Amino acid sequence: MQSPPMRPAWVEINLGQLAENFVIINNDRPPELKFLAIVKDDAYGHGASEIARAALAAGASYLGVVTLNEAIQLRESKIDSPILLFGERSETELACCLEFGLTCNISNRKTALAAAKLAEKKNKKFTFHLEIDTGMNRYGQRWQKALPLVSEIAAMPQFNLEGIFTHFAMSDESDKTYAMLQLQRFNELLFEIEKRNIKVKYRHACNSGGFLDLPMAHFDMVRIGILPLGVYPSKVCRRMAGLQPVMSVKTKIATIRDLESGDKVGYGMRYTAATPRQIAVLPIGYGDGYPRVRNRGTVLVRGKRAPIIGGNAMDATMIDITDIPACKQWDEVVVMGRQGDEEISVHEIAELKGSVSYDILTGWRSRLPRIYC
Ligand SMILES: *Cc1c(COP(=O)(O)O)cnc(C)c1O
Predict the structure, then answer these.
(1) DSSP assignment string, 290-328
(2) Which end of the chain is more exposed for a tag (fewer CB within 10 A), N or C?
(3) Residue 1's pLDDT is what?
(4) Which residues are near ligand 1 (CB < 6 Å)?
């Protein structure tokens, strides 16, 4: 049987813009500074293998993911570049990591010893990066306690201690005080490590915010996730001319209806027409990842903003098109992205949800087909 026609709501990924964003980043980046492309959570909903391929074509030295499955999926789509797994690995995952040639973050002694034993048994070397917790208190070995572990691990023949890294709790806001404290802690440890003649290929600390705003923390490599996707990690971080979002979300008008004054719209009757109105129904809702809203938010149709009215449903959203009388059934509607001179940014949608851009990007559900163009 032929595959059914696509539903009239979808996510568009502009691979041309993605390549352009990488050119902009490459022109900005000192040539000796390597970069790791973070493609966790399906590259923030953009499609991990597509974004990974573009990143590698643009010169990425590494890919980064969090779950073992994410890494295996990249290997299964024939990507054989170095892959770094962030987070804490359970000992049960280590054999798989070795088999698929994955680099892990190992930052506690118990896991390290288990990995060493396994490497010896398989007669292989375990490549890993050691995370230093300099103040985020998430993963990694606390900075004051890390030196004995680094020394012990560096001396073990089963290991290739390829990297040492830390992660900033806040790199993209104007106040860099805490980031500078974290950097100082990291630098002190690196100094002690160098004094002991322990060499690591990759020292890294920066995410997108750090790459933009903390050049003194670049070290050998930066880890960028959101920036190549054309979205800034914050409102105040440095801007790069030409960088544009890669993802848009679009739908089409499913039906148009006329309201008389006093008519109600949607579940909970959250909207009452004060005057006769014309409204359109969009076949997209909170079940697709749009925030659940009531009389808030706008979309673009015929190059103009149309407000959402009433409460949106799992599968439907109603908009007021009284002021855009040219609207027709199946007109294209932009939920996130550009149309004409107007743009609905991911940040604007994040505000509706009281959340951040990362949450909105990753929140578009898989029931929305991804179209690459
Ligand atoms: C997600 C993540 C990044 C990427 O952050 P962006 O702000 O998207 O650039 C970098 N490093 C680590 C450890 C991460 O978990």
Answers:
(1) PPP-BS--EEEETTEEEEEESB--SS-EEEE-TT-TT--
(2) N
(3) 78
(4) 38, 40, 86, 167, 207-209, 223-227, 233
What integer best gives the mean pLDDT of the chain?
A: 97
Which tens digits make up the pLDDT trace of 313-335? 999 999 999 999 999 999 999 99
Residue bearing tokens 């990759």 = 202
The pTM of the whole model exceeds 0.85: yes
φ, ψ of residue 104 in degrees (nearest 5): -110, 160
Instruction: Give me 12's structure tokens.
Output: 């568009």
Mean pLDDT of 352-369: 98
Taking residues 295-307, what's their average pLDDT? 98
- Say which of 122, 145, 267, 328 is annotated catalytic: 267
3-state DSSP call for residue 65? strand
The confidence score (pLDDT) of residue 2 equals 84
Q: Whose CA is nearest to atom 3 of ligand 1?
A: 207
- Note if 271 is an active site residue: no
One-letter amino acid for residue 333 of the chain: V
| Chain centroid offset of residue 372 CA | 17
Task: Give the atom of ligand 1 at the shortest distance from the alpha carbon of 167.
Answer: 13
Predicted local confidence at residue 55, as pLDDT: 98
Contact 284, 250 (CB under 8 A): no
Q: Say how many Å lie between the CA of residue 38 and the centre of ligand 1.
A: 6
Instruction: Give the N- to C-terminal CA distance of the chain in Å, as an integer.
Output: 26
Q: Using the 8-state DSSP alphabet, how is residue 262 labeled?
A: T
- The alpha carbon of 215 and the centre of ligand 1 are apart by a number of angstroms equal to 16
Q: What is the atom index within ligand 1 of the atom nearest the CA of 139?
A: 13
d(CA 178, CA 191): 20
Name the nearest CA neighbour of 346 among 245, 256, 265, 250.
245
